[in-house]
């Protein structure tokens, strides 16, 4: 099983990265949170990897922090939550906020994540509430962020998460008005808060 990859970023998008390891390109599915912390194409990257094996496929899921990987592996142990939905959940809510929502049985916050209905949210809480660490791993906030990225990249990331073009544009435009010179990571996080109803 592949548990770790270190190489160069060959290509990246909000849902996957291709990592060149000694001339071999590995396609790795990633949450948006990992995407916006990756360096530009050609830079070195080190990913923690979960290898998912099915009868007809072998898929790699990558994370920059142990905290996100741990949450992913807990999520896929819940009935009805496959690896694609688990990545979508981690893309739609920050890892620390997800852990807090599970600990606090915050069904309303969980159902604001695209793809998570009330029954799934309730199942996640029942099965994971008592398995969440008391505080998020500080490592999750220690990864260097990338520089500011064009509006279309943020819109693409939100579209991948299931938001409509109109919703995405509303969130991005407001985020840009509030902090037009912000980094991609900060702008995407703020846009997510706005479109998910968590804006303040």
First-residue to last-residue Cα separation: 43 Å
The percentage helix is: 40-55%
Shape: globular
Tell me the count of domains.
3
Helical stretch tally: 9
Q: Give the CATH superfamily of the largest domain.
A: 5' to 3' exonuclease, C-terminal subdomain
Average residue pLDDT: 84
Biggest sheet layout: 5 strands, mixed, barrel
| Class by alpha and beta content | alpha+beta
Q: Give the oligomeric state.
A: single chain
Q: Are there runs of 5+ residues with pLDDT below 50, and where?
A: 136-149
CATH architecture classification of the largest domain: Orthogonal Bundle
Order of SSEs, N→C? EEEHEEHHHHHHHH
Question: What is the top-level CATH class of the largest domain?
Answer: Mainly Alpha
- Tell me the CATH topology of the largest domain: DNA polymerase, domain 1
Secondary structure: number of strands: 5
Entry summary:
With 200 residues, this protein is of the alpha+beta class. 42% of the residues lie in helices and 19% in strands.
């Amino acid at each position: 099983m592949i548990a770790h990859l270190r190489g160069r970023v060959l290509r990246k998008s909000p849902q996957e990265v291709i990592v060149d390891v000694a001339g071999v390109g590995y396609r790795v599915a990633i949450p948006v949170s990992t995407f916006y912390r990756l360096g530009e194409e050609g830079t070195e990257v080190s990913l923690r990897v979960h290898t998912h094996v099915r009868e007809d496929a072998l898929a790699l899921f990558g994370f920059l922090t142990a905290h996100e990987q741990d949450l992913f592996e807990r999520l896929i142990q819940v009935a009805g939550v496959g690896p694609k939905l688990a990545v979508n959940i981690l893309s739609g809510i920050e890892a620390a906020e997800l852990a807090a929502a599970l600990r606090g049985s915050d069904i309303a916050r969980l159902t604001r994540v695209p793809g998570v209905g009330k029954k799934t949210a309730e199942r996640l809480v029942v099965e994971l509430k008592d398995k969440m660490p008391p505080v998020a791993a500080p490592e999750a906030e220690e990864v260097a962020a990338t520089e500011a990225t064009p509006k279309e990249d943020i819109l693409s990331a939100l579209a991948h998460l299931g938001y409509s073009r109109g919703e995405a544009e509303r969130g991005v435009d407001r985020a840009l008005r509030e902090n037009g010179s912000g980094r991609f990571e900060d702008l995407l996080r703020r846009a997510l808060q706005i479109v998910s109803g968590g804006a303040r």
